[in-house]
Amino acid sequence: MRQWAEAEAQSRLLMLSLFGLRLAWRLASASWKLSFCYVRCAQVRVHSVIARVKKTLHGSSDDIGWLQHTPGMVPVEDGSARFLELLQYIRNGEHNLPNSFVYLLIPGLFSNHGPLYFVSTKKFFSKMGLASHIAKIHSEASVEHNAWELKQYIEELYWGSGKRVMLLGHSKGGVDAAAALSLYWGDLKDKVAGLALVQSPYGGTPLASDILREGQIADKESRRIMELLICKIIKGDIRALEDLTYERRREFIMKHDLPRTSLSFPSTPKPAWGLESLLRSVMALCALHLKLRYGEKSDGLVTCRDAEVPGSVVVRPDRKLDHAWMVYSSWKKDPREPNACEMCEALLTLLVELGKEKARKGECSGLKQH
User: Fold this and answer.
1) d(C-alpha 176, C-alpha 140), whole Å
2) What molecular functions are annotated in GO for this chain (predicted)?
3) Which among 205, 180, 178, 326 has a CA at the least distance from the CA of 263?
4) How many CB atoms lie within 10 A of CB 333?
């Protein structure tokens, strides 16, 4: 009886030992799997952080100037020399801008909060007896929304005056105007005489892309800040900024035709310091940032290469002009230098000449066909 009890006790002890070993194995296996999962999660997080850092540092390096190296894009023509000639004539008091057109000035992003935007240019044109208007659009709206608004605006001016409309768009205003012509060319081809894009991010802008690019460091935080600024404070549409990113511009341009009879005007800023030129100081700093980071010339917001529309006549000024110079009068006017109003007049005069030249070529080709 005692032997049987001892055997049973030994059997129970053995069972407990086996159970302990099995439990220890399971605990060790679970611990190893958990450790492996933690290591894998850590690796994924490290790779994600590295990818975000690389994407942030790389920025828009591959996007700037994409229009120039995209196959099938029509090359630009240089009209700088003729522009300077016309500008000199204007400086000498020779004004040849005809009153047979209506001149529509289209402001850019955040222009609704700049009450003097294009005002001096409009007054300058009015004194010469020219019909001039500043487009009343919501500058913080999307490009396609403003394209529709401009279409209606152009049609009202045309039917009200019986004159074709000359467009001069600054910054996003140029992009909005170009979109109107691309989307509604069938309705506007007989009503629009030409388009001048002044410092417009036609190909996109690195500032918009670098702020809103997904997958970079603090991308969600950056987007929340811009949504708060544009949507809540300014009461605009975040798409106004999204539409200026390289991704959106590439998508739009590859889908729609390029605007006809256009003129492009890129520029670079000069250093400006002091409280009286705070805006220009900011532009100069932004231009320095783009130069150091990407090695690109810009006016502070738009690189020169992104401001050149394929197939257009490009005017590359010999002066350094920041992004705001063409629409705001300088506080310190130098009588020896042309002002923004004279520059706009020279651009539109050149645009009129281009339209006449195109019409002559059309007539010649028509005669040859007959």
Assistant:
1) 11
2) hydrolase activity
3) 178
4) 10
Q: Tokens standing for 73?
A: 């894009």
* Tokens matching residue 6: 């001892």
- In our burial notation (b when 16+ CB lie closer than 10 A, e otherwise), range 167-198 reads bbbbbbbbbbbbbbbbbbeeebeebbbbbbbb
* Residue closest to 121 by CA, chosen among 335, 314, 355, 338: 338
Residues 321, 285: Cα–Cα separation, whole Å: 13
Is the pLDDT score of 321 beyond 90? no
Tens digit of pLDDT for each residue in 148-178? 999 999 999 999 999 999 999 999 999 999 9
C-alpha–C-alpha distance, residues 48 and 37, integer Å: 16
Give helix 80-91 / helix 340-369 axis angle, nearest 10°: 130
Could you tell me the domains of the chain? 59-369 (3.40.50.1820)
Can you read off the two tokens belonging to residue 353? 């000449």
Calculate what percentage of the chain has a pLDDT beyond 70.
83
DSSP per residue, 242-272: HTTSHHHHHHHHHHSPPPSSEEEE-------
pLDDT for residue 253 is more than 90: yes
Residues 268 and 226: their CA atoms lie apart, in Å, by 26
The answer to whether 161 and 237 are in contact (CB under 8 A) is: no
Strand order in the sheet with 101-106: 77-78, 313-314, 262-265, 192-198, 164-170, 101-106, 131-134
Contacts of residue 218, Cβ cutoff 8 Å, sequence gap at least 6: none
